[in-house]
C-alpha cells in the first residue's frame, strides 16, 4: 500500500512513483531525430518562439484560486505546501456541476508499468464526474518518443495527445504546430474565466504552452526553482558526527574522510548535476536555457568557465575514489537511490521528490531513517548562482480535427483535473474511489494495491493546479521541501529564454547531443577537459555560431518572456 502523497514536482503531480519512473526513462532513452512527421502548411514549419506583445494577446488572464488556503504559501518561485490531510467533510467544491456534454475523447499518453483495464472503477468514476467518456490509449513510457513520432507522422491521430517536454525534438514541434488546435479562442484573456481552475495556472506556465505562435498546449505547471537537490543521510551524518560541507573544497575533504571502501561505504554517488548548480552553470533541462545574454553577447553554457570548473570538480571526486564504484561504471542513475537507502553512499543528487519517496519507503522498515537536502553553496562557499528551470515541461494537446464540442469537453476535463488540493475534485482525480482505490487510515488516505495500479499516469496529464507539495503523512518532509525551494529560489536567476518554448531549426536541433556523454567521460577520467574545449570549438564551426545568431535574432525580435 502507498501512503498519501501528492506533488507537482515531477512528471506526475499525483505521486512520487510515476515521477521517478518518468524521469529515469527520459534520461535513459533519449529521443532520436524522427525520420518523418507530417508538417504541412506554414504553421507546421514555423520555428522560433512567441513572447512580448504578441504573447500578451494570446495568454490567458491569471486569476488566483481562493478555494483552499495552503499551509505554506509560495515564495521565491517555490510550490505551496499542504502539511495535513483534509477530512472529507471539509473538502471544498471547485467544479459545482458536471462540466462535460457526455461526449467522447480518446487520449494517448505515456505510462510506466502495466496499463489498467479501460473499464476500471477509477476511469468509470472520473468519466461520470466530468461528463466526458474518455478512452485511454496508454503507451509504454520508455519507448513513447518512438510511438509519438509514428502517430504524429500518420494521417490519423487521437483526439488528445500528451507530449513530454523531453520528446520535443526532431520534427515533433512542427507536427504539433500542424496538427493540434489553437486554444486561444477558448482561453486567451478573460475567456479562461469560464474555466476557473485553469485560470489559476501561472502565466509563465501558459507561456510554455505557446507553439507555432498559438496557444496549443495545456501545461503541467512546476516550480521554476531547480528540481535537482543534493540529498544526504541526515541520520548517518548525526551518527558519525559529520556536519554538512559548505564549499566544494570542504565537500572533497569530507568525502575523503567519510569514504571507507573496505566497509562498502562511499561519500557520494555521481554529483555532476549538483556540481553544475554549485558552479552556476546555466540550466540543462531545456536547450533554450543553455543560452543567456551576458553583456552584449549571447553565450551558451558549454562555452563558459563555470561549465569547465564544474566538470573538473566532479572529476576530482571520481579521482579521489569517493564515488560509489557502480557510478564509476556508469550504472543507471535510478540505482543511486537504492545505494543511498542501503547506506552505501551518504550523498546523491536526484529530483527533490525523492526526499518524500525514499523517506516513505524506508520508514516502514527503519523508523530512524532520516534524509534531507542540503543547501547549495557557491564555488567559494558563498551564495550560489542558480538558474531557473522551465515552469512547465509536459503538455497536452487536442487535435485540430476535433469538433468544437470536443474541444470544450477537453477543456472541461482539464479544468476538473486542475482542481486544487483540498477539493472533492482533487481527491477523485488523485486517489480514485474511496473504499476501492484508497481507504482512510488515521485521517490519511492510503491507496490500496488496486489504487496503486490504476490511479496514476492518466488524469495526471490533463490539467494541473499551480505547483504544490502535499505529503500529509510526512508533514516535516513537505515543510522541508517547500522551505528548501524558497531558500534556493532566493538565489535563482532567469536566463534569457526562461518560460519560452523554442523550436530550433531542424538543421541544428541535434548539434549538442554528444555533450552529455562527453561530460560523463570527462568526470570519470576517460576524457580530458581539453577534449571538451575541442568539442566546443567543433560545435561552433559545425553550426553553434549560426545557432547563436539565430537565437540572438529571436531575442532581438521578440524579447524575453520575463
Task: Provide structural commentary.
The chain is of the alpha/beta class and 562 residues long. Helices cover 37% and strands 15% of the residues. The protein has a five-stranded mixed beta sheet with strand order 4-3-5-16-8. Strands 10-13-9-14 form a four-stranded mixed beta sheet, sandwiched between helices. Helix 4 links the parallel strand 3 and strand 4 (133-140). Helix 5 crosses helix 6 (172-179), helix 12 (272-278) packs across helix 13 and helix 21 (515-523) runs antiparallel to helix 22 (529-558). The model is unreliable at 7-45 (pLDDT under 50). Belongs to the bacterial solute-binding protein 1 family. It is found in: Cell envelope. InterPro entries: Bact_solute-bd_prot1, SBP, TAT_signal, TAT_signal_bac_arc.
Q: Count of DSSP helices?
A: 22
Estimated helix fraction: 25-40%
The strands making up the biggest β-sheet line up spatially as 4-3-5-16-8
Distance between the termini: 43 Å
Radius of gyration, in angstroms, nearest whole number: 23 Å
Task: Give the CA-based shape.
Answer: globular
- State the secondary-structure class: alpha/beta
How many β strands by DSSP? 20
Oligomer: single chain
Please mark out the parts with pLDDT under 50 across 5 or more consecutive residues, or reply none.
7-45
Give the mean pLDDT.
90
Main sheet summary: 5 strands, mixed
Estimate what percentage of residues fall within beta strands: 5-15%
Amino acid at each position: 500500500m502507498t501512503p498519501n502523497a501528492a506533488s507537482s514536482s515531477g512528471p506526475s503531480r499525483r505521486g512520487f512513483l510515476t515521477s521517478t519512473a518518468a524521469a529515469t526513462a527520459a534520461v535513459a532513452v533519449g529521443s532520436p531525430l524522427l525520420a518523418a512527421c507530417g508538417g504541412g502548411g506554414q504553421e507546421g514549419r514555423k520555428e522560433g518562439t512567441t513572447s512580448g506583445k504578441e504573447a500578451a494577446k494570446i495568454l490567458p488572464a491569471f486569476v488566483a484560486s481562493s478555494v483552499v488556503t495552503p499551509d505554506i504559501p509560495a515564495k521565491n518561485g517555490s510550490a505551496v505546501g499542504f502539511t495535513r490531510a483534509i477530512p472529507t467533510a471539509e473538502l471544498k467544491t471547485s467544479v459545482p456541476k458536471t462540466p462535460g456534454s457526455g461526449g467522447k475523447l480518446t487520449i494517448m499518453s505515456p505510462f510506466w508499468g502495466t496499463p489498467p483495464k479501460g473499464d476500471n472503477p477509477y476511469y468509470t468514476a472520473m468519466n461520470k464526474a466530468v461528463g466526458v467518456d474518455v478512452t485511454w490509449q496508454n503507451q509504454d513510457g520508455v519507448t513513447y518518443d518512438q510511438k509519438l513520432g509514428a502517430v504524429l507522422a500518420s494521417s490519423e491521430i487521437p483526439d488528445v495527445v500528451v507530449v513530454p517536454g523531453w520528446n520535443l525534438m526532431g520534427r515533433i514541434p512542427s507536427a504539433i504546430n500542424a496538427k493540434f488546435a489553437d486554444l486561444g479562442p477558448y482561453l486567451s484573456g478573460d475567456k479562461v474565466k469560464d474555466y476557473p481552475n485553469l485560470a489559476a495556472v501561472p502565466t509563465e506556465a501558459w507561456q510554455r504552452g505557446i507553439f507555432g505562435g498559438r496557444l496549443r498546449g495545456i501545461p503541467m505547471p512546476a516550480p521554476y526553482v531547480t528540481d535537482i537537490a543534493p540529498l544526504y543521510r541526515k541520520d548517518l551524518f548525526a551518527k558519525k558526527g559529520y556536519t554538512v560541507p559548505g564549499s566544494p573544497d570542504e565537500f572533497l575533504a569530507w568525502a575523503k574522510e567519510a569514504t571507507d571502501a573496505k566497509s562498502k561505504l562511499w561519500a557520494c554517488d555521481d554529483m555532476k548535476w549538483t556540481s553544475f548548480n554549485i558552479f552556476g552553470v546555466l540550466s540543462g533541462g531545456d536547450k533554450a536555457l543553455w543560452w543567456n545574454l551576458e553583456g552584449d553577447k549571447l553565450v551558451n553554457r558549454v562555452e563558459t568557465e563555470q561549465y569547465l570548473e564544474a566538470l573538473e570538480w566532479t572529476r576530482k571526486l571520481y579521482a579521489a575514489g569517493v564515488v560509489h564504484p557502480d557510478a564509476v561504471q556508469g550504472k543507471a542513475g535510478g540505482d543511486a537511490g537504492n545505494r543511498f537507502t542501503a547506506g552505501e553512499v551518504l550523498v546523491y543528487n536526484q529530483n527533490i521528490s525523492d526526499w518524500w519517496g525514499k523517506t516513505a519507503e524506508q520508514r516502514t522498515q527503519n523508523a530512524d531513517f532520516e534524509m534531507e537536502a542540503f543547501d547549495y553553496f557557491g564555488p567559494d562557499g558563498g551564495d550560489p548562482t542558480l538558474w531557473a528551470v522551465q515552469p512547465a515541461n509536459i503538455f497536452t494537446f487536442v487535435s485540430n480535427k476535433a469538433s468544437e464540442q470536443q474541444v470544450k469537453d477537453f477543456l472541461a476535463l482539464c479544468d476538473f483535473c486542475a482542481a486544487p488540493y483540498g477539493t472533492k475534485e482533487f481527491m477523485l482525480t488523485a486517489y480514485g474511489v474511496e473504499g476501492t482505490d484508497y481507504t482512510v487510515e488515521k485521517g490519511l488516505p492510503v491507496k490500496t494495491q488496486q489504487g496503486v495500479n490504476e490511479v496514476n499516469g492518466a488524469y495526471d496529464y490533463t490539467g494541473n493546479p499551480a505547483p504544490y507539495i502535499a505529503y500529509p503523512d510526512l508533514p516535516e518532509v513537505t515543510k522541508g521541501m517547500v522551505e528548501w525551494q524558497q531558500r534556493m529560489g532566493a538565489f535563482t536567476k532567469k536566463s534569457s529564454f526562461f518560460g519560452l518554448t523554442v523550436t530550433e531549426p531542424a538543421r541544428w536541433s541535434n548539434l549538442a547531443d554528444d555533450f552529455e556523454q562527453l561530460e560523463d567521460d570527462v568526470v570519470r577520467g576517460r576524457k580530458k577537459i581539453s577534449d571538451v574545449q575541442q568539442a566546443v570549438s567543433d560545435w561552433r564551426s559545425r553550426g553553434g555560431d549560426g545557432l547563436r545568431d539565430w537565437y540572438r535574432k529571436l531575442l532581438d525580435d521578440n524579447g524575453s518572456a520575463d
